Amino acid sequence: METQLERISAVECRVRVQIPWEEISPRFDQKLRELRGQAKLPGFRAGKVPPNVVEKLFGKTVRDELARDIVQETFQTAVTKHETVALTQPVLEEGTLTKGQTFAYAARFEVPPLIEPKEYTGVQVRRRPSVVDESKVEALLKAKQDELTEVRPIPEGTERETKAGDVWTLDIEGKLGDVNLARKDLKLEIGDTNEFLPGLHKALEGTPLSAVGTTRTITFLPTQERIRTELRDKEVNLTVGFREVREKHVPALDDEFARDTGDAETLEALRAKYGDQVREEDQNEAERDARKRLVEALLERNQFEVAPSLVAREVAAQVDLFKRQLQQQGMSLNQTGMTEQQVAGQMRPQAQFNVKAFLLLDAIGKAEGIQVDEAEVDKELQNLAEERGQNVDRLRATMEKNNQLLLLRAQIREEKILDFLMGKAEVTEAEDPKPESEASAAPDAKA
After folding, report:
1. Of 212, 234, 330, 358, which has the fewest CB atoms closer than 10 Å, so is most exposed?
2. Bridge pairing between strands 426-429 and 124-127
3. Which CATH number is associated with domain 2-110?
4. pTM of this structure
């Protein structure tokens, strides 16, 4: 088999392949023999059709089928021989199989661009200083407070009306308009906005705690803005069985609370610890932002074309990720009011950036001989296993089976390349520039 390869554009090649008839002839004859054994023609017994008749009737079909098989079988070998990576299946441009003649075909296919990276050291990069967002500290305190909140029985003999924080266990049965409603052991916290039925909380206002063990019939109009359009202006008629009531005990934010968390002895120390956590997270985000700006600057200096198939695959991957994220939230793409094509259109610019960034960083990594050794993979696997509470050997086996180990190696290598580039960059610590609206509203410095 003889092969030739030519690059016809930055992202497309053509391969030409020649295969002598002597190598094809046995397969051609074998296919004809198989057809002869199966052919049923008027005037001939089964399996006794003369070979020349079989070839006359089916020869072209056999040659076309054999040509397709040979292209599929030899294409990858021909491409690999020239140390080229085919990103797409071959598009046949010429290749007619004629009996007794050398079979020659030409096929084009997409390839990664040839990139010779330049000017990738000494890049000026801005990185903003890390800050402590106090609202995030408060959110961490609130999350820990919620975690330590208890639902306790209400002391016997307590006489009062239900209030925010009470948690009722209810059995309900009834209708919203013509829609049947029924729930057993429904947990309903008074004041919680996440209601099973919008407006039920308000309808239970004034219910005494002594209602436990009784049944009431209530009628109310649901909160209109939180109900489906077709059910608006329809009343709810419910029979409610009051099974049990408890109350939430929210711990006060004080030193005792801090000690109960096991993270600090005082509230001040706990705030400081959460502040350090928020600052570290912000520092990591600032570093990611700086690295993205570095890659953007490198892409400005190294402009190249990318194969459409690579961008299409990245778009498909991003759309699939978006759909899976929606599913985790209990939503579907239809509920967003967008089509898959619209989502793909929005994802395309980021997908193109991702592909270009990967290709350029890979080229820089090759130029600098940056590789990943097994010790680095083992360390990262150990960290992942600890984070997930899994056995490291079992995690490795699972990731290897799912081809995730290759992705992990690629991620480690990319981080090493970015570490190298940031180490060679001229990094300046400076705040993010203010939006134009804020800048124009600022007082004149000369005033």
Report:
1. 330
2. parallel
3. 3.30.70.1050
4. 0.76
